[in-house]
């Protein structure tokens, strides 16, 4: 076997292992989430009787939290149903004997797996919990305010660049949305007649978007409790069990020029001068080296094409010990963008945006994002 073939085999094995780990995180969502409720129950049971009496009402809500987890778990299992066949060119068949009711050592009383593995599983389950919040952000009435903040400026900019008076048929205008998440922005762009492709790297997001976009023909058929995992900063316990229904619109109504491509943005998109527009929302700070993203966006845009961006500069790799990360502030990033060759047509700072926030929480995270429009010069 050649060294290249051996390396490919290793990469394929790693890919399969990662796929299985993500599937397992969804399967053990309920068990690991229950662990947090069990912890509260145990602590309360150890208090003096008078304190326990004063927490009777709260204990009744802990029972309700478990019922919410049951509802969430039913959605979680719908999401991963048949995911082993969701990619056309890859078979990720996995062990069907694994299920979310078997012991996985998440219970704090009886941890049977090494602490490092347990930590990894709980970290992955937290990503599943995050997916539930992203479902609300992208595909529920409760997320409308955030979508108005984050997606509307991009959609309006597209309208101004490609008005229907001049572009009665937009299907030949190719728009790419890297970091598409659960696909709502890309879906909205396609709904306006453009040929749009979303790109996403995270299997957590890809599993959920596949379910919503392909298997949800009815509006508001499913229910989730996205905030049941948040135990602090509540005005009332009712806020913790606030439900949301999804999808607010039936996305399975197909758009003929809409698709989602899985994979690393830098590896998937290498063809030069292909796209009329690249729309990025909360994406560019996901790069270890943001300059690579800027250069690639410039390369794949057609001459005269537009880059529309909205988001903060969180720089996701910044605090990861074993990862490289560069974190230029916005003024230096803007210099880099122009040095690569872009013309900056529009720029707005201090754009207030939120990301998957609980509207009833006492604590709110709000970004002062940047919104800009750049153009690759015509030949």
TrEMBL record:
EC number: 2.1.1.22
GO-annotated molecular function: carnosine N-methyltransferase activity
First-level EC class: transferase
Pfam assignment, any one: CARME
Gene Ontology annotations of biological process type: carnosine metabolic process; methylation
A GO CC term attached to the entry: nucleus
Keyword ATP-binding annotated: no
Stored SUPFAM superfamilies: S-adenosyl-L-methionine-dependent methyltransferases (SSF53335)
Superkingdom field: Eukaryota
Keywords assigned: Methyltransferase, S-adenosyl-L-methionine, Transferase
Family of the protein in this entry: Belongs to the carnosine N-methyltransferase family.
Name used for this protein in its record: carnosine N-methyltransferase
Lineage of source species: Eukaryota, Metazoa, Ecdysozoa, Arthropoda, Hexapoda
């Amino acid at each position: 076997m050649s060294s290249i073939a051996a390396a490919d085999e290793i990469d394929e094995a790693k890919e399969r292992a990662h796929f299985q780990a993500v599937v397992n995180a969804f399967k053990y969502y309920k068990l690991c989430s229950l662990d947090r409720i069990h912890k509260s129950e145990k602590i309360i049971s150890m208090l003096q009787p008078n304190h326990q009496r004063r927490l009777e009402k709260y204990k009744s809500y802990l029972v309700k939290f478990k019922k919410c987890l049951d509802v969430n778990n039913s959605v979680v299992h719908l999401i991963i149903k048949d995911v082993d066949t969701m990619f056309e060119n890859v078979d990720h068949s996995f062990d069907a004997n694994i299920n979310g009711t078997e012991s996985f050592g998440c219970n704090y009383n009886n941890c049977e797996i090494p602490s490092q593995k347990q930590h990894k599983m709980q970290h992955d389950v937290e990503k599943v919990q995050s997916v539930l919040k992203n479902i609300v952000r992208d595909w529920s009435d409760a997320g409308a305010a955030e979508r108005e903040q984050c997606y509307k400026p991009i959609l309006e900019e597209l309208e101004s660049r490609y008005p229907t008076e001049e572009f009665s048929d937009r299907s030949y205008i190719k728009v790419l949305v890297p970091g598409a998440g659960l696909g709502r922005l890309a879906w909205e762009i396609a709904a306006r007649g453009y040929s749009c492709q979303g790109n996403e790297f995270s299997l957590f997001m890809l599993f959920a978007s596949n379910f919503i976009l392909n298997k949800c023909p009815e509006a508001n058929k499913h229910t989730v409790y996205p905030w049941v995992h948040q135990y602090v900063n509540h005005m009332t316990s009712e806020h913790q069990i606030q439900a949301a229904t999804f999808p607010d619109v039936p996305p399975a109504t197909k758009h003929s020029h809409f698709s989602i491509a899985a994979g690393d943005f830098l590896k998937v998109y290498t063809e030069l001068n292909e796209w009329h527009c690249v729309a990025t929302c909360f994406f560019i700070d996901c790069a270890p080296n943001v300059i690579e993203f800027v250069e690639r966006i410039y390369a794949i845009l057609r001459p005269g094409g537009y880059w529309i961006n909205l988001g903060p500069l969180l720089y996701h790799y910044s605090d990861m010990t074993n990862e490289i990360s560069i974190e230029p502030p916005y003024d230096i990033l803007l210099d880099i963008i122009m040095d690569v060759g872009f013309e900056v047509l529009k720029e707005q700072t201090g754009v207030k945006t939120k990301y998957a926030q609980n509207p009833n929480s006492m604590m709110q995270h709000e970004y002062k994002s940047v919104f800009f429009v750049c153009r690759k010069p015509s030949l």
